[in-house]
Amino acid sequence: AAEHYLDKQGTTSISALSAAVPMQVSQIRRLEMGNVVLNDVPALILDLTPQSRQLGRRVSGIIGHTVLSQFVVTIDYGKPAVTFTDPAAYRVPEGAAVAPFADRGGPLIKAVLNGVDEQTFLIDTGAAFNHLPAEAARRYVKGQVQHFTEGTGLDGRPVRLGTVIVDAVDVAGQKVKSVSFTYAAQEAHRTAPREPAREQGGFFQTTNLGILGNPFWQNFITTFDYKFKRLILKANQALRSRQEIQRLLASGDGRLVMHRDYRAADQAYRRALAAAQVAGDQKHESLLLGRLANLHRVMARDLNRPELARSSYDYFTKAQALARKAGDREAEGRILADWSLLYSDRGQAQEARTMIESALLLSPQDPQVNVDYAVHLYRAKLYGEMQKYIDKALFLDPSNWQALWYQVKLSEMFFDTPRLTTTLKEILRFYPWSKLAAEKLSQLKPRPAALPSRTPTPLPKQPPASR
């Protein structure tokens, strides 16, 4: 669209994500979003193909400060919806928390980590992650097992990222617990001074600015008042219903994957499904239909009951149709990933491959989709390729049960004792009841070396006493 419909008015560059990015300057004569109409909007032209590939959906553009700053903008992740309000008509909702922008030039906010560590963050509702500057990350990576993956900046260049968990993040008295952050791995572990020229790189390299993205802001109804330079946060009531659905869904997953308790898993999934239907939450309704399908798939395989494979197929079909109706590509990707295993169980390799590849395109950031892809590679004995997807799954979810145990298998297969030891310790950290992990770990502990046997030296014979 930019190539065919926008005039090029010169070039510029911005400091974004991983480096300074060159762009062409243009102007949009008329921009419509819902019933909002804007004229003569300044714009920059950039190819967003790498971001589209990473997110698993086509990104045609980014709505930025030149548009948002003209309104009070509210994002309700529970609906989801974005509301644009005339600043003169906006009133702060009762009970909302208000935090001033830390910089009058843009939406920067002060947040307190673990009650003591104050950091400045960019408010970035376009980010599917939270990010810590490398210097701050150094204080939190100690003692945590590190998982790494490759990210992509606006310039399209890869950046090696690690992940770290911060126990609590507080903005204006609103606290969120166990917040996951990425960080630039090569910067956090750097010991030599950085070259001055690199100091002007993007946010992934910056030493004093972090990013709070959608994983953080989705806990609230989040409002940006650009006129008065403030952020307004209000508890999201719809989130409570969603959290209960997610709790039941996670309970079902645990009963199925860790314990093979089919009845308990079925009960948890059905309770969550009923709650999603009452709440009108089509995304979770589709996911739960997919979970019931996967439950029947596992039972068909484990119990040798082929009739359950048919009901599994029917559930998957309904789940995909509902995910498409809801327009949720990530939910559809997860459904297709589990569905692909049904085809694989039944020996339909081509259908399984087509489906898992579609799933990865739709939902590349879902940890379980990456695990399911790794399962196919494991069955095909492509162990080296499989390791990449296990690494990514653990980066996205360090506690993923299946990913941890597949890492154990890979470590045993390649005699990687240090990684095997670390992974077993991670399993016991998240699942201290795991007897198998404890037994395997005890077998790896070096036994104390036996002391060399020593034969007592006989005492010299004494001469007979004189009489």
Protein topology:
Blueprint: H1 2-5, E1 11-16, E2 19-33, E3 36-45, H2 49-55, H3 65-68, E4 72-76, E5 81-85, E6 97-100, E7 108-113, E8 117-123, H4 134-141, E9 148-152, E10 158-171, E11 174-184, H5 185-188, E12 210-212, H6 214-217, E13 220-225, E14 230-235, H7 237-257, H8 262-279, H9 282-302, H10 307-326, H11 329-345, H12 349-362, H13 367-379, H14 383-396, H15 401-413, H16 417-430, H17 435-444
Parallel strand pairs: 8-12
Antiparallel strand pairs: 1-2, 2-3, 4-5, 4-13, 6-14, 7-8, 7-10, 9-10, 10-11, 13-14
What portion of residues is helical? Answer: 40-55%
Shape designation: globular
Oligomer: single chain
Point out poorly predicted stretches.
Answer: 188-205, 459-467
Rg calculated over all Cα atoms: 27 Å
The profile of the biggest β sheet is: 6 strands, mixed
Give the total of beta strands.
14
Head-to-tail CA distance between termini: 123 Å
* Average of pLDDT: 86
Number of helical stretches of at least 4 residues: 17
Return the structural class. alpha+beta
| Share of residues in strands | 15-25%
